Amino acid sequence: MSNNKVYTAVSIHSFRNVTRDITFDLYLKISDDNYAHVFSRTTGLDYKRLASYSGKGVTELFIRAEDKGLYDIFISRTAESIFADASTSQEKKIATLLNMTEQNMAEIFSQFDLGQETVDSSQKVIHNYVTLMTQEPKTLATILRLVSHGEYLYYHSIAVGIFSIILAKATGQFDQKTIEMVGLGGFFHDIGNSHLPREVYEKEQGLLVEQLDLKKTHCKLGLQMLENTPNVPDEVRWIVYQHHEEPGGRGYPNQLTASAIYYPAKIVGLVDEFSCLISQRPGRSALTADKAIEFLRSRPDQFDADLVKLLGSVFLRAMSQAA
Ligand SMILES: [Fe+2]
Asked: What is the rounded CA–CA span in Å between residue 198 and residue 323?
């Protein structure tokens, strides 16, 4: 058996807010077939050493694959205790959620099939975001600040999940359960990319025609992944499949026009583009939120004009609260 199957990567950030006790051993990857045992379940974590790994650019530690269940329990208990503690700052709560979400995303992108456990924990995470945003109106500004750091591939999906929740809520048309479903659709919208070469899905411009065609298959690939996973609502599948359709009928994969596009897919498609625009990407700098809204407003064929207007008002309000 190769070492890739013996060890499973976990984000080093997931240990940032925990007590020193761990219920599994942790390893550092030295080379493809060499893993060093760095923290033990009997002696616990050493924060100085953990910080020095982080300082040297280490982003992942490894657990033995058979300890994955113990790790999942450990992470969800840590998150629960942080959430239950009234003295914990809101920023720390959000950072904890983001760490959990990042871990979920890393799992989704490292495996070709979505496991039921990943769907369950994503649902839990989305539920926590919705609860937090209901309690704390200033959450959005904090999330915006925190999401702008970190691995683009994961954080983009996290941002789209969160922004979708916010926009769905702002429409006033959905109950909490449906809002959570829209958030899950946002969270999973690009999972089909996990089947594509990184240079294809990360590049925004200058792709060859055949690369562009390949890139466009991510909607169908995502749908297929979700079809193989039980207990995923159909609505989430429609969002993943339709998030690149455009009101003017020039989107993909089916060139649907305005009224034929599933409304939550329009929400996710819009915040997907918004999140791209406000992030720094290779070859271009990040736009401010109001410049991004202005850009979206200039493209009524691509984005639902009423939703763009609503997105603008929600984000401008968040920015003024953050100021
Ligand atoms: Fe996409």
From this structure: 37
Distance CA 258, CA 307 (A): 12
For the ranges 9-13, 100-104, 307-311, which has the lowest average pLDDT? 100-104
1: pLDDT confidence band, cut at 50, 70 and 90?
A: very low
Q: What domains appear along the chain, each with residue ranges and CATH number?
A: 1-87 (no CATH), 89-322 (1.10.3210.10)
**Is residue 152 packed enough to be buried (19+ CB in 10 Å), middle (13-18) or exposed (0-12)?**
middle
| Residue predicted with more confidence, 118 or 181 | 181
Distance from Cα 289 to the centre of ligand 1, integer Å: 20
208 CA distance to ligand 1 middle (Å): 18
The number of residues making up the chain comes to 323
Q: Report pLDDT digits (tens) over 150-164.
A: 556 667 888 898 889
CA 164 to ligand 1 centroid distance, Å: 14
- CB neighbours (10 Å) of residue 186? 33
CA–centroid distance, 195 to ligand 1, in Å, is 13
Distance 128 CA to ligand 1 centre (A): 24
Mean pLDDT of the 3-29 span: 81
**How close is the Cα of 302 to the center of ligand 1, in Å?**
14
Cα(244) to ligand 1 centroid in Å equals 6
Ligand 1 geometric centre to CA of 186 (Å): 10
Rounded Cα distance, 212 and 209, in Å:
5
Percent of the chain with pLDDT over 90: 37
Residue 197: Cβ within 10 Å count: 12
115 C-alpha to center of ligand 1: Å? Answer: 21
List pLDDT tens digits, range 104-159. 676 666 666 667 777 777 777 777 777 776 666 566 666 666 665 555 666 788 88
Q: Ligand 1 centroid vs 253 CA: distance in angstroms?
A: 11
- Distance of CA 322 from the midpoint of ligand 1 (Å): 29
